Amino acid sequence: NAGVMQNPRHLVRRRGQEARLRCSPMKGHSHVYWYRQLPEEGLKFMVYLQKENIIDESGMPKERFSAEFPKEGPSILRIQQVVRGDSAAYFCASSPTRGGGNTIYFGEGSWLTVV
Amino acid sequence: DQQVKQNSPSLSVQEGRISILNCDYTNSMFDYFLWYKKYPAEGPTFLISISSIKDKNEDGRFTVFLNKSAKHLSLHIVPSQPGDSAVYFCAAIPSGSARQLTFGSGTQLTVLP
Fold first, then answer.
1. Could you write out the DSSP letters of every residue in B16-34?
2. Which of A14, A51, B27, B85 has the fewest CB atoms within 10 Å around its CB?
3. Mean pLDDT, residues B13-20
């Protein structure tokens, strides 16, 4: 997990507030993936980004969720008007190229709790 | 539709014995399979992978077996150690995609001293 930095590690939001999760990929990595793990479930793919481009957002909920990976700075997963069902662990991963095998490295995760 | 299934939510094994974790998949388009280990409050850590053109890959105490006809793979850990106690996720990557991982629901392995 060394190198992929996520913050905050823990975030508490009230229903209706916004949550912003940040991910800095490993140095030299230009591909970022976001995954969500709901309680008692496996990780589910959300979105795949390269710098300034969303490549695949097939796993993202259609409303309230958005992601970006700007030219400068970290990738951001934004959840607007959070609901209790958004409570989950959100993991960011990065790879130097289109990921495959052990070139995908995960961060420590951001735990979102909606109260 | 769960394309990657880990039907055993938990497994307990005595230290020194073999741990066998199983995974089934339904999508014939998967061409790469991976196992990740995860401790509580941490991100997944890559363990071992296997391409669909192979039936076995070994790395130290970890061996992954792939049976394409049965759409089944397994992770063998031998000898098991208490530090192996964690949740193990099977994951698969379909060919020709953006290479996103499809994960199983995980198996909690407990290695008893």
1. TS-EEEEEEE--TTEEEEE
2. A14
3. 97
Indicate whether B1 pLDDT > 70.
Answer: no
Most B-contacting residue of A106, A112, A113 (CB-CB within 10 A), to test interface: A106
DSSP assignment, residue A81?
Answer: S
Average pLDDT over residues B75-80: 98
Q: Do A43 and B45 touch (CB under 8 A)?
A: no
* CB within 8 Å of B104: residues ≥ 6 apart: A42, B2, B4, B5, B6, B23, B89, B90, B91
What are B82-92's pLDDT values in tens digits? Answer: 999 999 999 99
Contact yes or no for B103 and A43 at CB 8 A? yes
Q: What is the mean pLDDT of residues B46-75?
A: 96
Q: Model confidence at A102, in pLDDT bands (50, 70, 90)? A: low
The SS3 assignment for A102 reads helix
Distance CA A15, CA A114 (A): 6
